[in-house]
Design a protein that fits this description.
The chain is of the alpha/beta class. Helix content is about 35%, strand content about 15%. The protein is built from 16 helices and 13 strands. The chain has a six-stranded parallel β-sheet with strand order 5-2-1-6-7-8, sandwiched between helices. α4 (about 115-120) links the parallel β6 and β7. α1 (about 15-25) crosses α6 (about 175-200). The chain is elongated, with a radius of gyration of 25 Å. The relative contact order is 0.14.
């Protein structure tokens, strides 16, 4: 029994931030119903290739993107543009603890599915809205896309090759970090609201913004600006305040070295046969290494190119110097620590057979997460949910289907 096995979640969200939030709750045991458009479903069902393959190696309709954010959920198809569909959502909301949605500001009010409308049928409802810019302010009605938010929120201004590197340009992250972090913060906010409701009986509204989140997760970078008034610059894979703390070339690839103190620096250069660098007056302390990085880094790169990535990792681990390889995803899933931790898992699926998934990283000793269901096919649980939650009989369900409501 998961920690949230007593919680029912109605997930009206699509794409990434909202579904990521709902999946976190589902992994913790919540019963999550994912509402999708009949015949079309969540947009990410079509964001491919790649698609998962069945036991015969034939592509299915299950996109890798959809798979990564929708495990442990049941799918129901409902056309919320029609009055009968809106009524179904209201009835389901009345049976739910939490509603999650990421429609544009004001869109669901047109259907009577906004917080003010739904709390009339469930007064202690917890309702979480996720938008690009929040429910208020001059940008509230703008659509919010992760890429744009990474730019507006400052992330891209400090990501990419160093500002003084020839041809350097800002870069986005390799994953949609604004969406992912917003989903994580939304999960936390919902858990806090559940605790509050358990103590007081009060539900509440949660207003999550991708832009708010992106600025917040800039952490020490935002703080550095607010403290100093100096606009942070791009440093590529280097650190503005620690040297050496960056990527280094080896004879067969790249590695990361994070020598966070003078002792680790000495162990690093000693392992590479260049112990004299630790005694050089220009490099004897971290502030001096930061000051003279342009002279030091080429010397260190010349040193690191003399050995393979594997040789360096073995040497530096023995010397207690923080280091690591830069793995591709084949290497990630073949890594002995990743294998030991059971990060890759499998779950049965009606079309794929055995579907490969990434496990939740939340490891709880008494209420562990588990994969109860693979990501659902479109509308897989429609009849089941209508029978179970709303007590509709087969005739009523068939009538809804014939009208295109479900």
């Amino acid at each position: 029994m998961g920690a949230l096995s007593h919680i029912r979640v109605l997930d009206l969200s699509r794409v990434l931030a909202g579904p990521w939030c709902a999946q976190n709750l589902a992994d913790l045991g919540a019963d999550v119903i994912k509402v999708e458009r009949p015949g079309v479903g969540d947009d990410t069902r079509h964001w491919a290739p790649p698609f998962a393959k069945d036991v015969n190696g034939k592509e299915t309709e299950e996109s890798a993107y959809f798979i990564c954010i929708n495990r442990n959920k049941r799918s129901i198809t409902v056309d919320i543009a029609k009055p009968e569909g809106q009524e179904l959502i209201r009835l389901l909301a009345a049976e739910s603890d939490v509603v999650i949605e990421n429609y544009k500001v004001g869109d669901l009010a047109k259907y009577g599915l906004d917080y003010e409308s739904l709390k009339k049928v469930r007064p202690d409802l917890i309702y979480c809205s996720i938008t690009g810019f929040g429910q208020t302010g001059p940008y509230a009605h703008r659509p919010g896309y992760d890429f744009i938010i990474q730019g507006m929120g400052g992330f891209m201004s400090v990501t990419g090759e160093a500002h003084d590197f020839e041809g350097a340009s800002p870069q986005k992250a390799g994953v949609a970090i604004a969406d992912i972090f917003t989903g994580m913060y939304a999960s936390t906010a919902i858990l806090a609201a559940i605790v509050h409701r358990d103590h007081t009986g009060e539900g509440q509204y949660i207003d999550m913004s991708l832009l708010d989140t992106q600025v917040a997760v800039m952490a020490n970078v935002s703080s550095a600006y607010l403290t100093s008034g100096e606009v942070p610059k791009r440093w590529g894979n280097a650190s503005p305040i620690i040297v050496p703390y960056q990527t280094f070339p080896t004879s067969d690839g790249w590695m990361i070295v994070g020598a966070g103190n003078d002792g680790q620096f000495r162990h690093f250069v000693t392992a590479g046969g260049e112990a004299h660098l630790a005694d050089n007056p220009l490099y004897i302390s971290n502030p001096l290494r930061v000051e003279h990085r342009k002279q030091l880094i080429p010397l260190l790169e010349q040193m690191t190119r003399k050995k393979t990535k594997g040789e360096w990792i073995e040497l530096l681990e023995k010397a207690n110097v923080p280091c690591g390889p830069i793995n591709n995803f084949k290497e990630v899933f073949e890594n002995e620590q990743v294998i030991h931790r059971g990060v890759q898992i499998e779950a049965p699926h009606p079309t794929v057979g055995s579907m490969k998934l990434v496990a939740s990283p939340m490891r709880l000793s008494r209420t562990p997460t588990e994969v109860r269901m693979a990501p659902p096919t479109l509308g897989q649980h429609t009849e089941e949910i209508l029978h179970e939650r709303l007590m509709l009989d087969d005739k009523a369900i068939e009538e809804l289907r014939s009208k295109g409501i479900i």
